[in-house]
Amino acid sequence: MSPRQSRPTHLANLDLNLLVTLRALLRERNVTRAARNLGVTQPAVSAALSRLRRHFGDELLARVHGAYVLTPLAAQLAGQVETVCAAAERLFATGRAFDPATTEREFTLLMADYPATVLDPPLSRLFDHEAPHAALHLQLIRETLGSGAGDAIRLVDAMVSPPLGHFRTPGVESVPLFHDRWVCVASAGNPLCEAESFGIEDLARLPWVVPYHRDEGYPSAAPATRQLTALGIRPRIAVRVESYRAVPDFITGTRRVALVPERLAAPIASAHGLRTLTCPVPLDPAIQARRLGRDVVLVDALPVLGGQCVNSMIGLFCGIYGNAPDYRQLTYGIFGELFAALEKTDDLHYNRTHTRTVTYDEVALGRWFENIVDELGIRVVLGASVSGVGVEGGVIERVDFATRFGPVSVTARGVVDATGDAALAWEAGLPCQVPDRTVWGSQQIRLEGLDESGKPEPAELVARVDEKAAQYGLVRRDGLAFFFPGRDTAVMNMTHVEAPLGAVEAADAQLRGRAQADRVVEFLRREFPAAFRNARVRAYGFPGRRQTRWLAAAHRLTLDEVRGETRFEDAVARTAWPVELHDRVEGYVWETFGPDHVHYVPLRSMLSPRARNLVAAGRCVDGDAAALSSVRVMGPCSAMGLAAAHALDLTLGEDVHQIDLTALRDRVRENVEG
Prior knowledge:
The chain is α+β, with helices and mostly antiparallel strands. The chain has 23 helices and 30 strands. The strands form 11 sheets. The protein has a 5-stranded mixed beta sheet with strand order 8-7-9-6-10. A 4-stranded antiparallel beta sheet has the order 22-23-21-24, covered by helices on one side. α10 (223-231) packs across α14 (335-344). The model is unreliable at 1-8 and 281-287 (pLDDT under 50).
């Protein structure tokens, strides 16, 4: 026998977790894949491999021609480790059912001092009443775990943390415990507290106290720093602390500010004479359902993510801001972090006319959507059309889809219909409505090779189209050009195409829409050569559809309610966008509102009386044609999506019509108040 085989080994001297790592390495023959399967980091597996090599005195995995192969010893161990691991799993599976009343074991919980403040009192009572013989070890997090969270949880019984989109550890489940929001705290003498209002620029100028921010530059994985990133703030960090409860000591009597969870802010503000201030941009979870801890499946009929704002080349974010002269922000949600991200790459531009709109690069926007969906672990099905819906007692239990790869069925306890055409509600047999006259869509195009210095004024463009439309075969007698400053490109909105609900008719309308767009390009080259002489079509968007079919909901939003600024008890979204009704082929109705005007969307306009767990959002909500034309733009549509996720989260397994409106208002208040 070799010395390695004859050396006695005692279990007490071994880290038995290495067995699991050894099994994964011998199965995968690759450190990265082994780490992925174990749900830990690659450095953790590399370190474990080094320990295994030292223990066995063997390389175990040897690189040959660019790939790893098992050494002879590793090949011998492969069968043994499978047997040992299987036996261990069977051994521990045969234990008695867990009984908290009799257990005497110690439970280790890992969390920061903030959730400890929230959870300790009820947790202490729970242990005392339900597990009187058990011991509790509360282990405080001393630094941001980041990607190491998967490794950390393997050493404890449970971990409490903010939602972690990258946290995917096999065999580990997570549940939402409570909701909170971020607020600013400042000393009572801070000039910020004396101001009638403050904005992002004010916060950016002040020194910050930041908990759990490693000395590793910016951005950081620290929760508060991530929220500041969402605001577009790169904080001037004056003090770093490893505890939320240490924050007020470095705020009192100074100009410093900090971001803390609201549940913690109240007691520390009272004890230290601090003021609590609402952030100018909300920092509540943005990609709503996933960040609420729910398992989310996102299904899109297109083969790519991004919806119409990316793939139909809308060109502008509209309806997010109020009217001149104040241009106050009315919708928040994802826009804080989205705008911050696109601003950093110069893929965003703000425009001020009667209201504030935002020009964007659709390629950059599409990648942002894809990256955040991937980061949050949202499961995606693309190129899918609804083929059937399973409904029982008003509850949608299953949605079937047809894809080029075969059928897909999704079972869910809550469903959001954001299809734009109420396709899911229609297939479920729920009452829907269609316009009593054609509401025209558009075929957008992005042109390149332009000379921005020669671009016509908007009024000049409209006048020339109206004069020459017949000559060039243009059906629409007005038009809009959304130039992206400094890039000599523009999105053109100068067509009107039908938006039928039949498959064959829709395909035909798309072809005719592109032919219209080609005639628009010819018109622009000849009539405005200074700007468009060398214009080329970079891309044709998918047909843009405005109002085709929508839910017959519990409440139908009316034009009178829009004009009268009706504030509903169950309001979940707001906007100041004009009535923009494209109900005539040659143009559209454009009815603007005053400087302080705001109109609202009630939750009832998103709920079918015949469905208990479905919420519509965006163009699927109920309104008369004119009212719907003023709320179907991106700002209020995003707010409706956020409200839909929160409504289902609050009522999952129950009837969404019976929602606690106080709880819902608390979650969506930034989008309807102030």
